[in-house]
Design a protein that fits this description.
CATH topology of the largest domain: Heat Shock Protein 90
Strand order of the largest sheet: 2-1-6-5-4-3-15
Distance between the termini: 73 Å
Number of helices: 17
CATH architecture of the largest domain: 2-Layer Sandwich
Number of strands: 15
Radius of gyration: 42 Å
Shape: elongated
Largest sheet: 7 strands, antiparallel
Strand content: 15-25%
Structural class: alpha+beta
CATH class of the largest domain: Alpha Beta
């Protein structure tokens, strides 16, 4: 007979004994009432109820306590080994009166299972927390860093150590920003993304292109350049909150930079003949005004527009080259913003009219004197209006609107009513060389105009933005600072005649390493 059958037999015997005892007590009660006390009437029935009432009160209590004793001991054994309970003693099975063999056997099995589960958990934790034994992590041919919640490196594979020129043992336990000095092409840095992810998200991922690794042992022109991918998992139980993978493209990006330098050198040689060409066109327009047929006059206008577009292209290439080499400097001084707008619109109006487009300039109220570099900020306006002309489609109107914001900044918007911009393309519009693939074949361009505009506006202390919907046109806007704010930031005090020099850098540091 097994332990469970033995326990069942004991319960059955106990129930039979309780029922038998209850019947004996009832018969004894009846005999005592009628034969001994010889009660009659009301007292007879009252006396007969004594035993049933006592049976219903005492026997269930005694029976329940007796029969639930095995369950109580098993429950106590489980609580004794449970991780979320404390101060629960082990059950004492010496004085158990029913199902002893079954209870002892089950408690023994509970202890064995708990021991096995604890061993498995400790083994798994040890294996999972040691990524150096992980085949995939160690064999990955790409640089891989794994960071804890405080940005400490808990794992770096061999390619990662080689990429930053450090030993693996020297990397583990170091703050990521102290050993990896990265620079980005815009303010959307790894550090900024990770801070936002920690504050607002449980899980997040992000990629970056054309990231530069600054290494002291390599010349500036040979610094590694790579694409970066990161994954964040808040509260990871193994402590691996952030994973960073680098995809090296040094050769490709270096060739792009060299090609850009070569193009800039070639374009530079175009400036002199282009200046002469534009001068001759202007002279011919003045001398031949009213003396040639409308058709010839239209030809002259188109020649002037083409020369102006070529001049814009040359200036864009040269300025981007200066930005990449940290050689672009802006001289900020007092300027009338309406004058700059009117001058720029006057130069661009012919270019728009050739496409059948009119430029509408609106200036709200009196604008404060601004602190800008007139030449470079005019390039921003030129690039934005030129883009609006290119993407106007069948629309025949572009609106320029300038006003003062609540923060006291001078904001200018350029709005077209053309083809618009897909939502997926908006985050990348100001990236270097970016071209929307849907319009790339239909509309010419270098993918540098908006990149240059963002850098120049940023160097002025302003902000550039875009609001667009596909098929509904686009609005680009940017801000410049009043000269009083520029002078205060430049620490020039009341010396209003002094120029304020600003530089425009193509690479933005990952600022976390400077906070520590």
């Amino acid at each position: 007979m097994n332990n469970f059958q033995k326990y069942t037999t004991q319960i059955r015997s106990h129930i039979v004994l309780v029922l038998l005892l209850n019947n004996i007590l009832f018969i004894l009660d009846w005999w005592m009432v009628e034969k001994v006390f010889k009660l009659t009437g009301y007292w007879f029935f009252a006396a007969l109820l004594v035993v049933p009432l006592l049976s219903l009160t005492i026997l269930p209590w005694l029976t329940t306590r007796y029969l639930t004793q095995p369950t109580k001991l098993i429950w106590q054994a489980i609580l004794h080994i449970a991780p979320d309970t404390a101060n629960v003693p082990a059950p004492d099975t010496k004085h158990i009166s029913i199902g002893k063999d079954l209870v002892v056997s089950l408690i023994s099995h509970v202890y064995q299972l708990a021991s096995v589960a604890d061993t498995i958990a400790k083994t798994a934790e040890k294996e999972e927390s040691n990524l150096s034994h992980d085949f995939i992590a160690s064999s990955l041919p790409l640089p891989l860093f794994v960071l804890s919640k405080d940005d400490t490196v808990v794992f770096a594979n061999k390619p990662a150590a080689q990429y930053i020129n450090l030993e693996q043992n020297d990397i583990i336990g170091q703050n990521f920003y102290t050993i990896v000095d990265m620079a980005f092409t815009n303010e959307r840095t790894f550090d900024a993304w990770l801070k936002d992810a920690k504050a607002n998200k449980a899980v997040a991922s992000q990629t970056w292109e054309r990231v530069r690794l600054n290494r002291q042992d390599i010349e500036q022109s040979m610094q590694p350049q790579f694409d970066l991918a990161a994954y964040y998992n808040q509260g990871n139980p193994e402590g691996f909150e952030t994973m960073v993978v680098m995809f090296d493209h040094t050769n490709q990006y270096s060739q792009d930079d060299q090609a850009m330098s070569f193009v800039a050198l070639a374009v530079h040689e175009l400036r002199t003949p282009l200046t002469l060409l534009r001068g001759y066109i202007e002279a011919f327009q003045e001398e031949l005004e009213g003396k040639v047929s409308p058709e010839m006059d239209d030809f002259m206008k188109k020649m002037a527009v083409s020369a102006g577009q070529l001049s814009t292209f040359v200036n864009t290439i040269l300025n981007v080259s200066r930005i990449d080499n940290n050689q672009l400097e802006l001289q900020l001084h007092k300027e009338s913003w309406p004058d700059i707008l009117q001058s720029a619109v006057a130069n661009l109006r012919t270019r728009a009219e050739v496409r059948g487009i009119t430029l509408d300039l609106k200036v709200d109220g009196e604008l404060p004197i601004v602190g800008v570099d007139r030449v470079s900020i005019t390039e921003v306006l030129t690039n934005l209006v030129d883009n609006a002309i290119k993407y106007s489609g069948t629309s025949n109107k572009i609106v320029l609107h300038s006003y003062v914001t609540r923060e006291g900044l001078v904001e200018t918007t350029v709005q077209d009513f053309g083809v618009g911009i897909p939502e997926s393309a908006i985050p990348h519009l100001f990236e270097k060389f970016y071209r929307n693939h849907r319009n790339r074949a239909q509309v010419g361009g270098t993918g540098l105009g908006l990149y240059l505009a963002k850098v120049i506006v940023g160097a002025h202390g302003g902000h550039i933005w875009v609001r667009a919907h596909e098929g509904e046109g686009s609005t680009f806007g940017f801000t410049v600072l009043p000269y009083t704010q520029v002078a205060e930031q430049g620490k020039n005090g009341d010396n209003e005649s002094a120029d304020i020099v600003r530089s425009a850098h193509g690479w933005i540091k990952n600022h976390s390493m400077y906070r520590r």
